[in-house]
Amino acid sequence: MSALVEIRDLWIEGRSDETWSPIINGASLSLNKGEVLGLIGESGAGKSTLGLAAMGFTRDGVRISKGTVLFDGVDLTLASASKKRELLGKRIAYVAQSAAASFNPAHKLMDQHTEGPVQHGVMSRAESVKDGIELYRRLRLPNPEEIGFRYPHQVSGGQLQRAMTAMAMSCRPDLIIFDEPTTALDVTTQIEVLASIRDIVEQFDTAAIYITHDLAVVAQMADRIKVLLKGDEVEDADTRTMLTHPKEDYTKSLWAVRAFERPQKPAVHTSATPVLSVQNVSAAYGKIAVLHDVSFDIHQGRTVAVVGESGSGKSTTARCITGLLPPSQGVIQFDGQSLPANYKQRNKDQLRQAQMIYQMADTALNPRKTVGEIIGRPVQFYMGLSGKQKRRRVEELLDEIEMPAAQYIDRLPSELSGGQKQRIGIARALAAEPKFIICDEVTSALDQLVAEGILKLLARLQDDLKLSYMFITHDLATVKAIADEVVVMKDGEVVEQGPKQDMFAPPHHPYTDLLLSSVPEMDPDWLTNLLNERGVDNIGDAAVDKMS
Amino acid sequence: MSTLPTLMLLLLGVAAGGWVLRFAGQKATGNAPVFRDMPFAVAFGYILGAGLLAFSVWYYFQPTLTEAGTPNAGVVFFRWAVQFFIVATIAAFLFRALGRTVGTQFSKKMFRQMPLTASFGVLVVIVYAFTAIFAAWLAPHGQEAIFAKVNVLPGGNAATGGDPLHPLGTDQIGRDLLSRLIYGAQNTVGIAFVTTCLAFFLGGSLGFLAATLQGWLDQVLSRAVDVLMAIPSLIFALLLMTIASAWAGSERWLLTVYMILIIAVIDSTRVFRLARAVGLNIVVMDYIEAAKLRGEGMTYLIFKEILPNATAPLLAEFGLRFCFVFLTIASLSFLGVGIQPPLADWGTMVRDSAQFINFAAFSPLTAALPLLAAGAIALLTVGVNFVVDWMLHRSSGLKE
């Protein structure tokens, strides 16, 4: 049997600054009907480009310079526009990373769902609506009869991602390309989406290319894994072999990332004054209460991880601490002193002592300022240094975050990689010489290798400078790596808190248990076992509903 | 044959030509992607363009005099336009080539990425700026100097009613038109520039302030701007100018100051809207939150954090706004309430010689008199717009 997709010696180039530079260097792959291939690599490895090329498509400013992409015997690099129109959507479908950005907000889900089949003449509109409802049911969306008649903003992120998968399925394609479909989702939601994607791909015997940077996810989904590094293929093997016996050093380093864990610190004296103490804080946006009676302490040199799904109130707690959202009840104490509720009433020193590192380094650094200006401003503002002294201090700080000053001090944020930007964010916080730093999902937008580097840096800085961290995250691997104490939040309340070793050892609060068990593991049978354990109809939403 | 059937027939011919072009192209090149994926509309466009080009060439070489001895005005104006277009293209091309070889690394790179339209626009802006700044040295005569010969035609050829002393002719009271055009650049463009800067300072700072503080200040400012924008701007300006001329009395220069203020305030409303909209997108960024939490003051926030990120859209708007202000001033002068005589101003010049346009069919040179000043206005507007288009394209290309 000949392969469904056959890519031979494909070279792809991207245009930047008047020249063409290579993105993919001679990749080859073949995919049989019903097979799932996982493509993994860091950002910039060319995995999305290769995935799109399998549809014969390139983004603007990108071209295929050499090689062939055979889909069912048709060479897509040479096919005419009308021939491609016939194939795309009907026999090849695409599921994008951000369903929220990919759906047209002005049309109902079902109207967008039926567009493909009707255009391609596969089904009439009425048939397609019926089929859509059936697909929604198989993808375990709640209220399959009604959900299609809502607008994209009326359903949640995980549901939208499944609706998009249903849309891709609407013409029963032979090939679906999933471009990081679960990266933007919480662990608990991710499971639902993963399980439903896997089931439906199996049911219809569809071939799929699954692009992701999360190894544990790809282990659940793929039959075969291909590892890419900077446009070169590193390794290609079937999933079990790849997991147990990786050959190349790069693959091994990817596998090893999750092993980083800090040693447990001795318990704090109960008499010590905490650096930061959140006491019975409640807060509301307008009339909608989002935090209910939240209390926890953070001691010097300690990391408290605040864990929960999106909407659980983690970031709102941070906003209360920084004073952006004055709490409606309760107080925030710093070194035993109550802080004014609103940041505008706090003095310069109070502001200096508590700094923040943001999730999206892209929006946290002013794109028009150089690294030197970004880090230099707090140095000047709080420490009153200027001229040469200021520059020397900035260079020291750049040293601290392991970025050579001579090379980086005059660069703009756009000339840095994601991990480097995040390091600049850290340096800006350090420039204020604070006692306490809030880290808001600082690693969630980064690749695993880069994220590990950031975590190690933060750990070292904590040891050197006796910093205290409040670490907001939804990733439990990160918690395991860096936290001393854990606070689990749900719906604006603290459901459980305590030292890390207690949290990761049973017995758990049922919600903590759900979170813990939802973290994908490298074992390819993990998802199957988990679903069996929970009972197939009982995952995610349902499980949470039952408990609460 | 009447016009409509002829037009229909021509369209049909073009449509058939387009089909033939595509078909022949496919056969001749063995189905190359260019012809294979060519939509019919594109083929239609090629044939239509080729037809128009052929017609222009044919029309260009028609005689300028009819058999009866009267001038064929259409051909004359068409020739002028084509000649100007060719000269402008060559000038833009040479200018860009110059920019690519001379200058700093940065400017060389900029010129390499520049389309021809943008280099033409930059050239126009430079020439106008140069003329405006050095008007006193460039102009052969003073702007108020009156000569004996009135209504001398442009061209400088005595046989066609010109005078070598006045290459562009003189107006009804004998003032040299070339000198007045050059001084006009100083007056009209200079005043427009000052007005636009003022409008931007006013609208920009208030807009950013509204975006940063929000709340009641934003409400008050925005509603006030709404009220001002609800009144048609030219009518409003006319009304205010009438009042201002009563205040100014015989002090002519005071009226010019009033005009600058009035137009600046009216145009600042548009700038306010833009600055506020751009500012609102920027103030939600985390780096603004970081600066607020650092304890930075309002001035730092607006000028050091927000403004650098808003320069691209604001600069583009500056170009457009400058054109509008410039046209408003010319319109006001045309209506007699703008820049006051004897100061040279293009709007006034168009008004003074406007009736000559009626002679276009009999004497193209006479009709060229009002077209000179009007052309000066049009050329700057087009040039600035080319530059703005290019800047907008660049800034959007960089961001999204």
TrEMBL record, chain A:
SMART domains (alphabetical) = AAA (SM00382)
Location in the cell: Cell inner membrane
Which keywords fit this entry according to its UniProt record?
ATP-binding, Cell inner membrane, Cell membrane, Membrane, Nucleotide-binding, Translocase, Transport
**What SUPFAM superfamilies would the database entry show?**
P-loop containing nucleoside triphosphate hydrolases
Query: What is the scientific name of the source organism?
Result: Marivita lacus
Topologically, how does it sit relative to the membrane?
Peripheral membrane protein
- ABC transporter domain location is 5-255, 276-516
- State the Gene Ontology terms under molecular function: ATP binding
Q: State the protein's name.
A: ABC transporter ATP-binding protein
Matching InterPro entries: AAA+_ATPase, ABC_Ni/Peptide_Import, ABC_transporter-like_ATP-bd, ABC_transporter-like_CS, Oligopep_ABC_C, P-loop_NTPase
Primary localization class, coarse: membrane
Membrane as a keyword of this entry, yes or no, is yes
Family, similarity comment: Belongs to the ABC transporter superfamily.
What Gene3D superfamilies does its record include? P-loop containing nucleotide triphosphate hydrolases (3.40.50.300)
CDD domains to which the protein is assigned, alphabetical = ABC_NikE_OppD_transporters
TrEMBL record, chain B:
Q: Which InterPro entries match?
A: BP-dependent_transpt_permease, MetI-like, MetI-like_sf
Q: Where in the numbering of this chain does the ABC transmembrane type-1 domain appear? A: 185-383
* Its membrane topology: Multi-pass membrane protein
Which SUPFAM superfamilies would you find in this protein's record?
MetI-like
Main localisation: membrane
**Record has Membrane as a keyword:** yes
Q: Which UniProt keywords apply?
A: Cell membrane, Membrane, Transmembrane, Transmembrane helix, Transport
One protein family per Pfam: BPD_transp_1
Against PROSITE patterns, the record matches this protein to:
ABC_TM1
Residue ranges of the TM segments: 6-25, 37-61, 73-95, 116-139, 189-213, 225-247, 253-272, 318-339, 359-388
Q: Where in the cell is it found?
A: Cell membrane
- Family from the record: Belongs to the binding-protein-dependent transport system permease family.
Please state what the protein is called.
ABC transmembrane type-1 domain-containing protein
